[in-house]
């Protein structure tokens, strides 16, 4: 007998709104009767160049070894990350699935029922999910109109139950960086752990990870999903103080980084040319989109731009672009983002041209 047993589920789980991912090519192809091959996917900030060919070769090479467990602590990958980041392996953890796995692990390590986390909105929607699953309560602090945050407001939101402050730089979906002095101010005046999400940092002029050497309450999250083009592998890592690495290992799922992910991650780090090209295409493309899209486009330090289509509605414009075979991300599922913002991933130059044309048509249709 298979009964549904909702009473078995923890009470706090019912407060969790489902994570809303960007639309897939298959969904749009079937919804609008389009040829999947003709669809341009610019809704999930993926790398338009695909993965490094070295990473692909590593995947092929590891396929016959799929019966073997990877190393439990992903040490080979952490050694490669040590070279890439300049931090010793004692400051590094590798995580699967993705950086999301790191966020999940940290919440399981730190958050208990009744604890609070601070989330400056609008921002990446996932932070509150693992916190809530652990019985934590997100406290939202609104960003300024230009999406910068006010460190004083963040600190004022702190209570004796605050355990983690989630910051994102460059911020998703706005693309702006967190100034180093604002981060220092927060780090120096809080008792909580500060998590800085640097998923897009390679596209930016500056990073904040160096501050892990100075502060024992800072964690920086990184991912292979964006600039390295390995979103499908679900691989991330964290830079954190040694004391926290030691505690984190206690709750991390053993073998969370699969063997193919581990080897492909190492190969991706070794492909400086693919990295350089991926950064270049995003930097050139975001300036092109900013100059050509006939709406307000925010300056970006990332591989996407935020477009304000007011007085039109994001939903209407998104729908119209999707009908033309272009997938973008309306931001109405981001808390406090309103209903006129659309996030557009920078694509190849040809894709960017098509996006601009589509926006022009939508603008003329009014
Ligand atoms: C994509 C993204 C992540 C998730 O990275 P994964 O490694 O794919 O889990 C984390 N934070 C931000 C801001 C992102 O945009």
From TrEMBL:
The UniProt entry, under Gene3D superfamilies, shows:
Aspartate Aminotransferase, domain 1, Type I PLP-dependent aspartate aminotransferase-like (Major domain)
List-wise, which residues carry N6-(pyridoxal phosphate)lysine? 226
Q: Which reaction does it catalyse?
A: L-histidinol phosphate + 2-oxoglutarate = 3-(imidazol-4-yl)-2-oxopropyl phosphate + L-glutamate
Note whether Amino-acid biosynthesis occurs among the keywords. yes
Q: In which pathway does it act?
A: Amino-acid biosynthesis; L-histidine biosynthesis; L-histidine from 5-phospho-alpha-D-ribose 1-diphosphate: step 7/9
Family matches, as InterPro entries: Aminotransferase_I/II_large, HisP_aminotrans, PyrdxlP-dep_Trfase, PyrdxlP-dep_Trfase_major, PyrdxlP-dep_Trfase_small
| MF GO annotations | histidinol-phosphate transaminase activity
Enzyme class, spelled out: transferase
Record's keyword terms, sorted: Amino-acid biosynthesis, Aminotransferase, Histidine biosynthesis, Pyridoxal phosphate, Transferase
Name the cofactor(s).
pyridoxal 5'-phosphate
The answer to whether keyword Metal-binding applies is no
| EC number in record | 2.6.1.9
- Domain named Aminotransferase class I/classII large: residues: 39-359
Q: Which NCBIfam families match?
A: hisC (TIGR01141)
Its family remark reads: Belongs to the class-II pyridoxal-phosphate-dependent aminotransferase family. Histidinol-phosphate aminotransferase subfamily.
Checking HAMAP family in the record gives:
HisC_aminotrans_2
**Name recorded for this polypeptide:** Histidinol-phosphate aminotransferase
The organism is Methanosarcina baikalica
Gene that encodes the chain? hisC
């Amino acid at each position: 007998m298979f009964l549904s047993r909702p009473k078995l589920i923890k009470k706090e789980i019912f407060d969790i709104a489902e994570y809303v991912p960007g639309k897939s090519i298959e969904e749009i192809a079937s919804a609008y009767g389009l040829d999947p091959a003709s669809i341009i996917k610019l809704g999930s900030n993926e790398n338009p160049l695909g993965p490094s060919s070295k990473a692909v070769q590593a995947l092929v090479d590891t396929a016959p070894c799929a019966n073997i467990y990877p190393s439990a602590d992903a040490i080979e990958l952490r050694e490669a990350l040590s070279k890439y980041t300049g931090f010793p392996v004692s400051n590094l953890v590798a995580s699967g699935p993705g950086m999301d796995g790191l966020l999940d692990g940290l919440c399981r390590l730190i958050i208990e029922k009744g604890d609070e986390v601070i989330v400056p909105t609008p921002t990446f929607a996932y932070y509150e999910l693992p916190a809530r699953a652990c019985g934590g309560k997100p406290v939202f602090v609104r960003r300024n109109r230009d999406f910068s945050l006010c460190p004083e407001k963040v600190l004022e939101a702190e209570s004796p139950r605050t355990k983690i402050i989630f910051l994102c730089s460059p911020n998703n979906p706005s693309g702006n960086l967190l100034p180093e002095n604002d981060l220092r101010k927060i780090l120096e005046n809080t008792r909580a752990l500060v998590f800085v999400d640097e998923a897009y940092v390679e596209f930016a002029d500056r990073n904040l990870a160096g501050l892990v050497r100075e502060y024992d309450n800072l964690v920086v999250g990184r991912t292979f999903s964006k600039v390295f083009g390995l979103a499908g592998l679900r691989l991330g890592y964290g830079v954190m103080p040694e004391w926290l690495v030691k505690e984190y290992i206690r709750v991390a799922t053993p073998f969370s980084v699969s063997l193919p992910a581990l080897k492909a991650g190492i190969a991706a780090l070794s492909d400086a040319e693919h990295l350089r090209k991926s950064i270049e295409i995003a930097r050139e493309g975001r300036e092109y989109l900013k100059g050509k899209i006939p709406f307000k486009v925010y300056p970006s330090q990332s591989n996407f731009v935020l477009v304000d289509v007011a007085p039109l509605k994001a939903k209407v414009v998104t729908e119209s672009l999707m009908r033309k075979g272009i997938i973008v991300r309306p931001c109405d599922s981001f808390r406090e983002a309103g209903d006129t913002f659309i996030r557009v991933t920078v694509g190849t130059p040809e894709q960017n041209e098509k996006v601009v044309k589509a926006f022009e048509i939508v603008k003329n249709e009014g």
